[in-house]
Design a protein that fits this description.
Elements (H helix, E strand, L loop, with lengths): L14 H20 L3 E2 L5 E3 H4 L4 H6 L3 E3 L4 H5 L5 H8 E5 L4 H11 L7 E10 L11 E10 L5 H16 L4 E7 H10 L6 H8 L2 H15 L4 H11 L5 H11 L4 H20 L8 E3 L13 E7 L8 E6 L13 E7 H11 L12 E3 L4 H15 L5 E3 L6 H10 L4 E4 L2 H5 L2 E6 L5 E5 H11 L3
Parallel strand pairs: 1-5, 7-8, 12-13, 12-14
Antiparallel strand pairs: 2-4, 3-4, 5-6, 6-11, 7-9, 9-10, 10-11, 14-15, 15-16
Helix pairs in contact: 1-7, 1-14, 7-13, 8-13
């Protein structure tokens, strides 16, 4: 007998969880649409060459490859290395994120698109990661990207989207900023410009491993003592945004690319504050330890963390200047952000911040008394559904106790009873399951009573 199970790092979602997840998704989706973003969906799988080499060596290792159909054994028999074997037996992979498939879509459809093209995408992605709290092998990303414009207004708007969504979700967050141009300037200043990507991958681990372990890893990577000292001097810069910017300007006063990155951050900070229009936004903070290890970022990079729950990042993104160039469409700048749906769910759950509206689906249950009462109930249940009130009728004439237990277990707030006496008098009984109070109303006024209960 087969034991029922699911792959490690994946999950089933029951009705209660799905309602809560849909609440988060709808909050994000409506905000995307308010800012003029259009929906897009891409296939779960992509050609493997579309994805490989875009996320760094670690990303390539974590990618789920899909075996070809047919005789893979003979095709793989001649392989002498792991990579040759993969190339021989796999031509497709599950998408690792939504950004590269988006770039591929733009490259394939650029003649039909209006630029700048603003799209949002809410779909699952897959990574062969080590499952742990807030980290899964199958998880959803909620992305928004603007492509075809170099204007920093896009960064300002995306940061404003973050602030608005988390305000609506009643979550306090830390929105952190850095710039890959500053990191490129750091690599240049440290004399390791040709190892800039290697440096950013190490810096991306800092919040997990701490400065001492980072120092060890830089030594192990054969960075010179002077290079390590320069990097650590950079990481030691702390304080307010104004203090950090002044220190950066001094440190990089002769490094042109870093100065461009500093200027971009200043511009975005000012624009973001202008867009808040007197609200109390989640404040932006420059974080020089922020590196984001993905290969394609070239400008401002962003990360969002909960200010209330210890959790990894719940959002992130950045500017990429030539992502579509890898698909033969050069010089098309873009910028995007992503919401980590699963981690946001975990934060809201831990803080008990989900609204009561997510706790149940059905609002009214009709008890089934059989015969003529069932006929009347069928008519009335359909009538209140026409008023967009979620309702159901118990499917069979079981004992009243069993039907009431069903309502309690599903946390249905109101039950409608139509017994013999009610039928004879053209009445129904509405029972509040929380208080136990019952109200008898005429069938003619029943719909209006139900609407008033739900303020419709």
């Amino acid at each position: 007998m087969t034991v029922a199970s699911i792959p490690r790092g994946t999950r089933d979602f029951g009705p209660d969880i799905v309602r809560k997840r849909n609440y988060i998704i709808q909050t994000i989706r409506s905000t995307f649409e308010t800012y003029g973003f259009e929906p897009l969906e891409t296939p779960a799988m992509e050609n493997i060459e579309t994805l490989t080499g875009k996320y760094g060596d670690e990303g390539d290792k974590l990618m789920f490859k899909i075996l070809n159909n047919g005789d893979i054994y003979s095709k793989g028999a001649q392989a002498t290395t792991n990579q040759e074997l993969i190339n021989a037996v796999s031509e497709k992979a599950l998408r690792y994120d939504l950004t590269i498939p988006f770039a591929r879509y733009v490259a394939m459809n650029r003649s039909q698109l209006t630029f700048p093209f603003k799209r949002f995408q809410i779909q699952p992605v897959w990574r062969a990661d080590n499952p742990q709290r807030g980290r899964f092998r199958e998880f959803y990303q909620c992305d928004a990207d603007v492509i075809g414009s170099k204007s920093l207004i896009s960064e300002m708007e995306l940061l404003s989207i973050y602030s608005r969504v988390f305000e609506q979700l009643n979550l306090q967050v830390e929105i952190k900023l850095n710039n890959r141009k500053i990191l490129a300037g750091l690599a240049e200043l440290a004399g390791i410009a040709d190892r800039m990507m290697e440096m950013t991958i190490l810096l991306d681990k800092l919040d997990k491993i701490g400065p001492e372990k980072l120092h060890e890893l830089m030594l192990k990577a054969a960075f010179s003592n002077d290079a390590i000292a320069c990097i650590e001097q950079f990481l030691a810069i702390k304080g307010t945004n104004e203090t950090v910017l002044l220190a950066l300007k001094e440190l990089f006063k002769h490094t042109e690319i870093a100065l461009r990155g500093i200027d971009e951050i200043e511009t975005v900070l000012k624009g973001y504050q202008l867009m808040q229009q007197g609200d109390k936004p989640n404040q932006l903070a420059i974080d020089l330890t922020l590196a984001r290890g993905l290969n394609y970022y070239t400008g401002i990079i962003i990360e969002v963390k909960s200010a209330e729950v210890a959790m990894g990042s719940i959002g992130g993104g950045g500017r990429y200047d030539d992502l579509t160039g890898i698909f033969g469409v050069p010089d098309m700048s873009g910028v995007g952000i992503s919401f980590g749906l699963d981690r946001i769910y975990e934060v809201l759950l831990e803080l008990n911040r989900f609204p009561d509206t997510t706790k149940n689906g059905t609002k009214v249950l009709f008890i089934n008394f059989g015969n003529q009462a069932e006929t009347t109930a069928l008519q009335l249940v359909q009538a209140i559904r026409q008023e967009t009130i979620a309702a159901e009728i118990y499917p069979s004439n079981e004992k009243i106790k069993k039907q009431m237990e069903y309502a309690n277990k599903k946390q249905i707030p109101f039950v409608v009873l139509i017994g013999e006496n009610e039928l004879q008098n053209n009445q129904v009984v509405i029972k509040n399951m929380a208080s136990g109070e019952q109200q008898t109303v005429s069938i003619a006024t029943f719909i209006q009573h139900i609407k008033e209960l739900f303020s419709i």
